[in-house]
Amino acid sequence: MNGPRLSRRAVLGGAAAGALIGPKAALAAPRGTGDLVREAVDLEQHAVVVYGAGAEGLSGDLAETCRVFGDQDREHAEGLSRVLRHFRGEPPLEPEGPHAVRGLESAVEGGPETFARFALRLEEAAVAFYYEAQAELRDKALLSATVSIMANQSQHLVVLRRALGREPLPSAFETGGVG
Known about the structure:
By secondary structure, this protein is an all-alpha fold. It is built from six helices and no strands. Helix 2 packs antiparallel against helix 3 (60-86), helix 2 runs antiparallel to helix 5 (112-133) and helix 3 (60-86) runs antiparallel to helix 6. The protein starts with 7 loop residues before the first helix and ends in a 16-residue tail after the last helix.
């Protein structure tokens, strides 16, 4: 890999703060499978909070989309938590509400477009995380599961891009900006 690599937490924090995600943002360095899965659980837990806040604070189609995305990310977090326990790891504590995700409250207050841009950056970070995780995972079942989660996050990208009036599929290969 060329260029600097950021931790998933830095990527999430950058997305939450509204910063642009760099092209190589995702994993900091090779790590154990348990560590990687723990980071994935944390990412999914944050997404659940983001979409929960959107479902509560917005209305119409975007609020319904937030409910669906939040349910999907909750399933991801729960499934990955089971995997993490298999590796004798303990899932991270869930964020304690929208105030625990930097920039989320102002994104919701900013209305549908501001929130959609915020959520889009989160999804780009998630896809980038899972894209780079593929190089580090060796367990075939876990690799298959994370590829499936990445595909789901890529679907979220399409929906959010459409909501923002953007090209839904700007590339045949979705990497979340990596590569």
